[in-house]
Design a protein that fits this description.
2 copies of one chain form a homodimer.
Chain A lengths: L1 E5 L4 H13 L1 E2 L2 E2 L2 E6 L12 E5 L7 H7 L4 E4 L5 H6 L1 H25 L5 E7 L22 H18 L4 E7 L1 E2 L12 H11 L4 E3 L6 E5 L1 H13 L10 E3 L3 E4 H17 L2 E3 L3 H8 L8 H5 L8 H12 L6
Parallel strand pairs in A: 1-4, 1-6, 4-5, 6-7, 7-8, 8-12, 9-11, 10-14
Antiparallel strand pairs in A: 2-3, 11-13
Chain lengths: 327, 327
């Protein structure tokens, strides 16, 4: 199997590549080639007999055709600019999140017109396709009314994915990732950053700022769960999806208070004391428009699984990022 | 007010232009200019002091910019190729139903960057954005999972419309028309044609073919209702829509048997005897994937209205197309 990961330098892309190298196979098939692509050269951090890493911008004409010409069996499309950037730069958001995605889909169709070619295509979408007001739980048949250009671009990608799949141009699945927690790395300025910051920083003995109240509820899954979703999506039988190719992934609905309680179980009161409350009305307002909970029956029935407790999410962070030890 | 109708040579576009000329005003504002555009030159219906009709293809680069440069106050975008054609010609469907729509939206945004410009934009969508399996009634928050490329293109147009409106580039509303019945003109080969044929032809003393069973239920509104939807959408206050700019229009859910019963009330047994049953498994299968009924609370609350009985729909056809007399 030849696997192409587009957006391989991002957090989820890196972890996926690393896991595939460890596995050496995908499902029952050995991986004989792994191609990593991103706008910056992805690190070839892994020992693998046939791995390439290159910088390429899918939004540049000709790039998609070149990537697809190698006829990868599985294509994982993770590349996107984030919500804040797509909102700040309208043209760039549509060019990268919509036009480049469509260019990829179209390149696959064109390649298949030369001689039969029908890869598996895994597209990462987002819960940003939904926009407030919400029901308490967002069900599998709830409509997509995004409140950002990023969410709009992802929702359009989902529609194109379903139509190209229905037409038989590729075998596609779109997966809507929950907010990834605990996100490794440095604190960042994303409005959602604090969900990870308030756990990651105290676990490392550092202070973190909490800009919202403890009653704020949100939808989470670990980086390990995200990688597991992608690996499952790469190999599972897609027949049961029919024409409905896009799925909200399972996750854990939890309040900030529940996150802090889990931190207390695992790292004690000393860690919790490192959380400094600094209410920020701007972040409060943004977050109030975000989904709080989902009913993901379809994904669950198809074998997708996420964590059941925040203790579990924190333990995964300690195992995968901190070498099993709290700093 | 300067009103631009794109797709003005189609059945709904013609009727809308005709009604606007009769009204001479839209809401409380006098119409001082009416621009009709289609890929073929639209008829300059009736006598109006300032009316232009021109052939222009929105899918040709530069056309949208030229149309928008005149800064119409209200733009009604009806232009599309139909479902069957978009399914048969993938490239043409995306070019006309998606790219041309996006070109129009983008031309408005670019015009607004030169100096402030924010027209009302009315986009006609379709119940084809929905795909089976359905609940008995499709509610206002049901997801769009189209089963045709046409439905996909309309659903993408809806998402773009909402995002461009949210960004303030225009004041947009998308209206999903029911199947229009009784459609005037000749019988055509559209799979939905029989819904109109079985009424229109017998009313004119002609035979009509019924390819499905009498229990088939579908969602209808008259041409007059469609024009009323558009006129309301052109002037109503869109504030209550918030970011959710796309609405399923009201309609009448009726079985073929109920249609025939209404024909019997109005034109007698003689007319009903002109319906010849010729079951067609291909059409039966297509129609079984179509919506049967909707719950259109939002549109109703916003003042949109359709017919309540098929007797009414038939009477409108007799008044508007047959000069009040049954042939």
């Amino acid at each position: 199997m030849h696997i192409l990961i587009i957006g391989a330098a991002g957090m989820v892309g890196r972890k996926l590549a690393q896991q595939l190298v460890l596995d050496q196979r995908i499902g029952t098939e050995p991986i004989d080639r792994l191609s990593l692509v991103d706008v910056v050269v992805p690190a070839k951090v892994y020992d693998f007999r046939n791995i390439t890493a290159e910088a390429a911008d899918l939004a540049t004409p000709g790039t998609a055709e070149k990537l697809v010409a190698a006829r990868p069996d599985v294509i994982v499309h993770l590349a996107a600019i984030v919500s804040g950037e797509a909102e700040a730069d309208f043209d760039r958001g549509y060019r990268i999140n919509l036009d480049a995605t469509r260019a990829l889909f179209e390149a696959i169709r064109q390649e298949g017109m030369k001689s039969p070619y029908k890869p598996r295509l895994v597209f990462t979408s987002s819960i940003a396709v939904f926009g407030a007001p919400f029901p308490d739980k967002i069900g599998d048949d709830y409509f997509t009314t995004p409140l950002t250009s990023y969410g709009t671009q992802k929702a359009i990608g989902e529609l194109l994915l379903a139509d190209y799949s229905r037409r038989g141009f590729f075998d596609g699945i779109g997966i809507r990732l929950p907010t990834i927690c605990v996100r490794p790395g440095k604190p960042n300025k994303a409005a959602s950053g604090f969900f990870s910051n308030i756990l990651r920083e105290p676990l490392a003995g550092q202070e973190a700022i909490l800009p919202v109240g403890e009653d704020v509820r949100h939808w989470h899954a670990s980086p390990r769960a995200a990688v597991a979703f992608l690996r499952h999506a790469m190999t599972m039988d897609l027949t049961p999806l029919g024409a409905r190719r896009n799925l909200s992934m399972p996750g854990l609905s939890a309040t900030v208070g529940e996150q802090i309680e889990a931190l207390r179980h695992i790292a004690g009161e000393k860690a919790v004391r490192l959380i400094r409350r600094e209410p920020d009305p701007v972040i409060m307002k943004i977050v109030s428009g975000w989904p709080r909970d989902f009913d993901t029956k379809r994904a669950a029935a198809l074998g997708f699984k996420a964590e059941a407790t925040f203790d579990e999410i924190i333990r995964i962070h300690i195992e995968d990022e901190l070498g099993g030890k709290i700093g």
